[in-house]
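Q:
Just now I want nothing more than another pair of eyes on a protein record. Here is the record:
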Amino acid sequence: MWKPLLLFLTLNFGALGIGGFLMGGEVTGEWYQNVNKAPWTPPGWVFGAAWTTIMLLFSFYMASAWTEMENKNFLIGLFAFQWILNVAWNPVFFKFHQVGFGLLLITALTILVGYLLIGLWPQMKLKSLLVLPYFLWLLIATSLNAYILVKN
């Protein structure tokens, strides 16, 4: 399981790095600083801590799924789609200020991660709980994106 774990750690933290690079520091930019944000928006440091924890747990989940699931092509397809949606949301929302399209992307990502949590439960059993923080965080992030769309 160590090789798949290292691979998924690299891919998941790579996604965070690429997404961060593509948004080009816009989190501290004028647009995001001045946008009307939801009252439940966490402080900035929470995002880094949350994503680090989420990607660690998700990497363990994916490595376990890789060793336990027979249909690896399906699993990799789900993972790849999740990866693309996760990376794409950052520049779409922060750099290009496409809040509506960002909401579409993050909603699709939330549904996909929800499927990983619930739809793969029969194969993954309690290991599916490793995806729960990702799913919960995406519910919060989706609500933050939706608030910005509605209130700005």
The chain is about 80% helix and 0% strand. The chain has a mean pLDDT of 96. The helical segments are 2-23, 30-34, 44-68, 72-95, 99-118, 121-124, 132-151.
